[in-house]
Amino acid sequence: MTAPPRLLAAIFDMDGTLVDNMRFHSEAWVSISRRLGVEATAERFEREFAGKKNEEIFPLLLGRPVPSEELALLALEKETHYRTLYTPHLALMRGAEDFIARLRAAEVRLAVATASPTENRQLVLDGLGIRSTFARVVGAEEVVHGKPAPDIFLAAARDIGVEPAACVVFEDALNGIRAARAAGMMAVGITSTTPPELLREAGAHWTAPDFASLPPELEALLRTSPHGKGASREDVV
Ligand SMILES: O=P(O)(O)OC[C@H]1O[C@@H](O)[C@H](O)[C@@H](O)[C@@H]1O
Fold first, then answer.
1. Which domains does the chain have, with CATH numbers?
2. In the 8-state DSSP scheme, what is residue 173?
3. From the CB of 150, is ligand 1 less than 6 Å away?
4. Which residue of 82, 105, 149, 208 has the fewest CB atoms within a 10 Å radius of its CB?
5. Can you state which reaction this protein catalyses (predicted)?
């Protein structure tokens, strides 16, 4: 890869990245699929649907267009079930607090770009008291196309005033990694949900199990930030 001029912004996916919650989403998806009489596995949600918007997932799941009123009811049912399952487990991903503090100290701009709807964002970002950490939170309803379209990451970068090539995205979903690459950003695959080799195949430059075990290349990248200690471009390649 060609090294970016600097690291100026970090854009975080929320579900599966800032928090380790994808198994609760999958459980809620499997449960609503069963009720609707559709065969669907947790793996299908994690590999094929994760990162897409609910209005994109339900028509794929049901194999037909879903009118907006029906869609709103289905989404409410799935998301309410997910929140009931996940709320007792609410916690930041391992190492996230320290890593975010380091990014802030390095004056890296921070944003969240998530396919999750408002109430899910409230649960995680307000529930953990981290919303004000981010200069911008872009949600599903603000873009027409969910991941793997680049729209949500481009919107985040635009709103925080950083060119895509100077942004690094942290993502756990294959669709999210593809979206980050389509946006022209660097991509780190967090392996909470998907094996590292699949994330790399989708385009992740690096992978890590969590924020406490980030690869050395990322440390070098951090040194190219406004208050980093100064790494040469070659260190990052
Ligand atoms: O973009 P994020 O934060 O990974 O959110 C994705 C999730 O958003 C949820 O609302 C969907 O129901 C999930 O199936 C989806 O995976």
1. 9-20+91-236 (3.40.50.1000), 22-88 (1.10.150.240)
2. S
3. no
4. 105
5. beta-D-glucose 1-phosphate = beta-D-glucose 6-phosphate
